[in-house]
Fold this protein.
Amino acid sequence: MTITFTPATGLLASLDLLRVGLADSVAHVQLHRPDKRNAISDTMLQQLHTALINLPSSVRAAVLSGAGKHFCAGLDLTSLSESTVAEGVAHSRMWQGVMDTLQFGRFPIVSALHGAVVGGGLEIASATHIRVAETSTYYGLPEGQHGIFVGGGGSARVPRLVGVACMTDMMLCGRVLDAQEGYQRGLSQYVVAEGQGVAKACELAQKIAGNAPLSVFAITQALPRIADMSQPDGLFVESLMAAIAQGDESAKQRMRDFVEGRAAKVRHPA
Ligand code: 1HE
């Protein structure tokens, strides 16, 4: 599916390390520093945050992609060498804040991955809700080789996708996963042919944008939190969230639509 995005104007257009496009309920945010493989400087990270919190209220889902040969080369390594321990903590907390805005912001985000998704690039991808990987995609955590550690929420999010053992391998031994291995281990939910990532991500974002808002809220906000709770606590929150979601008028209308034969049935995927 191709969506025709209109380039954003005003503040969103002034973010020179991003390209922001808008189309009704879907936005496309592209990391746009292709000559540096979309390496994330502090300015770029702040621009990403600014874009996310300033997208119009009509936006119900977003696509995140990277310009050029790679999705993202991670942290801009030129920025790290001279920082003190205190600055390092502050820098990591800044990254974590922006990654939280990705994961727990107002709308779900579908990332379209290709080429290198490494270091902070993988931390960004793992903070998005759905990941679509083109066949050129590969995942690495070279922090172990650089003598540093992840600082953008990677230690919390990546093991939840691939497990601690796999992340340990990626960091201690420099193991790199290709698109297929990443898919098998849960790093992406979809693998598509080269050049098809944004189109597939747009198709999924459009589908998500049509979902009932409280259902989307439950899936993006409650589900990951419930997964971190004890089972009794999680089940308690689940009941509250279920009642809130199904009490919404748009949910009731959808259920009436099904009962009265107006809604699509669930079909075998083949
Ligand atoms: C960069 C960066 C960067 C490229 N910071 N400048 N991330 C890494 O350890 C990944 C480091 N980068 C690479 O391994 C490779 O550059 C890539 C596999 C991503 C791409 O390779 P390639 O051959 O397509 O490009 P290139 O020729 O290596 O890079 C093109 C330019 O981008 C070059 O600059 P130029 O001025 O010489 O043209 C590179 O220096 C520059 N570049 N990657 C700065 N990362 C919250 S904590 C997160 C911690 C981390 O993310 S650590 C992992 C960092």
